[in-house]
Amino acid sequence: MAESEHPSLTVSFSSFVVGLATSAMGHLGEGPASSINLELARNTIDVLGILKEKTEGNLDDEEQRLLDTLLYETRLKFVEKTKD
């Protein structure tokens, strides 16, 4: 089956990091049918941090801004949740 037959199955760097950030937010209790699991949230946020380190200098401007923004937002939400 050709890739063009299922465009929704195409994974880009941006969709990958958005998926990780969405998972982290779900583990932080954000979103429908989500429950708080701070350990899983921390692990997923750490993966985003590793991606930032390992892709330094290899992303286009849009990908870099997206990763920076998602990492900032998930870290901020994690800190908020751990203060409660």
What is the alpha-carbon Rg in Å? 14 Å
Helix and strand element order = HHH
* Classification by helices and strands: mainly alpha
Low-confidence residue ranges? none
The tally of strands reads 0
How many helical elements? 3
What is the beta-strand fraction? under 5%
> What share of residues is helical?
55-70%
> What is the count of structural domains?
1
The largest sheet, given as strand count, sense and whether it forms a barrel, is:
none
Query: Separation of termini?
Result: 49 Å
Could you say which overall geometry the principal axes of the C-alpha atoms support? globular
**What's the average pLDDT?**
91
Structure, briefly:
The protein contains 3 helices and no strands.
Any overview of this molecule?
Helix content is 65%, strand content 0%. The N and C termini lie far apart (49 Å). The longest helix is centred in the last third of the chain and has 23 residues, at 61-83. 17% of the residues are buried. The radius of gyration is 14 Å and the shape is globular. The chain has helices at residues 13-27, 38-54, 61-83. The chain is mostly helical and 84 residues long. The mean pLDDT is 91. The protein has one domain. Helix 1 (13-27) runs antiparallel to helix 2 and helix 1 (13-27) packs parallel to helix 3 (61-83). It contains three helices and no strands.
